[in-house]
Amino acid sequence: MGRHDFFSRYAPRASRLRFAVSRVAVLVLVLVVLAWIGLSILLAPPPTTTQLQTVPLVSDPSPPGTAAPGPSAAPSADPGSSAGAVTVHVVGAVKRPGVYTLPAGSRIADALEAAGGLRRSARPELLNLAARLADGQQIVLPGASDAPAAAVPSAAGPSGGASSGTPGGAQHGGKISLNSADAQQLQELPGIGPALAQRIIDFREANGPFASVEELDAVSGIGPAVLGNLRELVQP
Hints:
This protein is α/β, with parallel strands linked by helices. Helix content is 31%, strand content 11%. It contains five helices and six strands. The protein has helices at residues 3-43, 108-114, 183-186, 194-207, 224-230, and strands at 85-92, 98-103, 138-141, 171-172, 175-177, 234-235. It has a three-stranded mixed β-sheet with strand order 2-1-3, covered by helices on one side. Strands 4-5-6 form a three-stranded mixed β-sheet, with no helix packed on it. The radius of gyration is 56 Å and the shape is rod-shaped. Residues 57-63, 65-81 and 147-172 have low confidence and may be disordered.
């Protein structure tokens, strides 16, 4: 058998064998790859699930139909009923006489300013402008017609000497002013000693100027008898 005959006889069979081997090798390779993929999936850790945090909504604690709390507004003061205010009646030589409500602790000067200020004829020196106001108080500001043209000397004081009044000061037409007299001038009155004179001054500083002579009865130590002796000698 020649060489040509050998290859002619066995070459096709070898080719078919190689093709079969190749197909088997490809199939084995595919199976290996599939097996590897399946094994990887089985052995892979489970996927982690992202936990979303739920943020609670801020709810309005107030019940439905009620307004949310806001800045508290200060209640308006009721004139005459609030402890933080006083109501006074201002008359006399002011531009706008009337009833005015002022903060507690205000002075007579504040009440006169609230009444529009002083008239040209006003005599503010006859009042204690620094005295505190009291609720329900009447403030009478004297004018030029209320002051005498000249002061008349008063009666002799305890020391025996005569004390002359100062113009627009403590004496008006021979009467001592309860609202402007000092302790020495008050002691010139019958029955008024140093202690009682000081109580009169303390009373008008705490309660405002005297509106009438009868208000002396509210001063500790002044009874009906003393008031009767002073009625013709003093004036507000």
